[in-house]
Amino acid sequence: MDRTFSFHLPPRIEFGEGMLKRLPALVKETLKGSRVFVVTDPGVRKAGIVDPLLEDMRQAGFEIRVFDNVKPNPRDIDCEEGGLAIREFEAHMILAVGGGSVLDSAKAIAVLQANDAPLRQYEGRDRFPKDVVPIVAVPTTAGTGSEVTRSSVITDTGRKFKMTVKSVRLAPRLAVVDPATTHNLPKGLTASTGMDAFVHAIESYTCKASNPFSQAWAKEAMRYTFRNLKEAVLEGTRESRNIMMLGSVMAGVAFSHSDVAAVHCMAEAIGGLYDTPHGVANSMFLPVVTEFNAQANPEVHAEVARICGLPVDVMPPREAAAFLVEELERLSEDVGIPEFGSQPGVSPDDFDRLAEASFINGSTPSNCRTISRADYLDLFRKAYRA
User: Fold this and answer.
1) CB contact at 8 A, 302 and 325
2) What is the pLDDT of residues 132-158, one digit of tens each?
3) CB burial string 24-34: b at 16+ within 10 A, e below
């Protein structure tokens, strides 16, 4: 085997129900300093997760400042507002409590504490010169895996384009993952974030940038998420939600050490233009992209079907891959994923622009099947007609 790859996993991961009660002690064990800049959003605060944590942190001697102006698709202008606030506060660390939008915003704010605005000048890999304060990540959804990744995906409001700021220095120093934060999530959010986690897993497993380490994490993440999502959404059992959170973290490790691919490229394109929630966007395009990719690489997609527990052992690879696509469509329907054409603002007049935005996405070269602008255009049209 002729392989060369890097695998750098900075975060300390603390996982388990009740872990949030240990947050102040874990922060003190891991980091130095007392001034904590908290990044969250109004929805998470309303859910009652944040304020008890802040009280525990204050009781432990930490000085707190809260920034909660985070939108579902985080925007550069809000992150720049947060950058001004954190500079004024002179924080020693950032505590991010929320879903992927909050966690990605926290990373961007960390960049802007140490480096001048605008954020767009740091788009790409390792573009910011000065190091950032440590980040403590507390995810409240089982989906993005951002608590263990080194990327921040933020909407450039001027271009209506989702850009990525990426560096291993952005990986949180500490991830405190308590699956109890997901136990009361509504069905729709459980569905979209759970499908998001599965997309991370399947794309990291099948993409050209995968390696043996990332595939090992992705394999287990696919197994956990595919087999438990429907129960987590429809029945909301504690065990299924706990497993979904574990799968989400593992999928985050997987794609952070390989890449995502065409599903994400399309999802980020419509997220930038229409402000479509990221998990929903990924979910809508997964079946059509999987069908496209499986035509060129049926063997690996047949393997994905087996990992997911589908009854394909006696099927030839192409038949097994086609069965996988059918099951992904069925799962999306069962958990209530909406159709692309039903999303607000979607117009075929935009498809050329969306195809271009997808094609120039940095993850396009990682797709397991070579994909062109014309291919993206066809996929947008197919998803729209589905």
Assistant:
1) no
2) 999 999 999 999 999 999 999 999 999
3) bebbeebbeeb
